[in-house]
Amino acid sequence: ESWNFPYVDTDGEQGFRDGVNTLIGFQHRRIAMIAYDTESLAGNYRLSGYLNTMHDAGLSVPDHFVWHGIHSEQTGREALTFWWSLPPNERPTAILCVSDTIAIGVHEEAKRRKIHIGHELSIIGFDNMPVTPYLHPTLSTFEQPLEDIGRACIDMLCDTLSKHPLENGRRKLLLPPRLILRNSVGLAPED
User: Fold this and answer.
1) Cβ distance 126 to 12 under 8 Å?
2) Could you tell me if 31 and 65 are in contact, meaning their C-beta atoms sit under 8 angstroms apart?
3) Closest CA to 49 of 95, 93, 13, 85
């Protein structure tokens, strides 16, 4: 499924593949995800990247490890509250969030519960909001290539205005995000 018009976007699916693989590299095996509601196409691409990479790595994804919600800090707080109500061996050791806003909710709820972020729990957001390097501990996140997206959109628009038909490969362009590792990611805790 895809949008039915020319577009340039961040490759969220690849970003979440990279996020899962990074967390696996930090020895995490119980990795959860907070996703948007299923109507979000961009959110579904990110979810697909998470699920496919977990599957490819041979890691199970219990149904309760995928939390769907709206774009709010409250969604992050609610997800963490639910996961921390589970026995310790059923909780995630790392959480990938579909946005920084949601990740900030997880981050703040973890601090409220005195969960040591980067030690007991790793968190990765998406968007690189300006506040993320100022949180304590600082939030790992994906940075979208906004300048490259802007240039590609202008190129696409100029091609359209000059009446050059857009080739299929140029109608839909996905650019990779860049993972910025900060203090919210660390080695998985020992069971």
Assistant:
1) yes
2) yes
3) 13
d(CA 16, CA 33): 10
Which position has the token pair 């805790």? 189
Nearest-5° angle of CA 110, CA 136, CA 148?
Answer: 105
CA dihedral 60, 144, 122, 16 (to 10 degrees): 10
Residue 36 is given by DSSP the state E
Q: What is the 3-state secondary structure (H, E, C) of 17-42?
A: HHHHHHHHHCCCCCEEEEEECCCCHH
Segment 91-106 shows an average pLDDT of 98
Q: What is the DSSP string of 75-93?
A: HHHHHHHHHTTS-GGGS-S
CB 175 within 8 A of CB 145: yes
Contact 138, 180 (CB under 8 A): no
Q: What is the DSSP string of 49-75?
A: HHHHHHHHTT----GGGEEEE-SSHHH
pLDDT confidence band for 8 (50 / 70 / 90): confident
H or E element: which one contains 32? strand 31-36
Distance in Å from the first CA to the final CA of the chain: 40
SS3 34: strand
Q: Which residues pair with 121 in a beta bridge?
A: 117
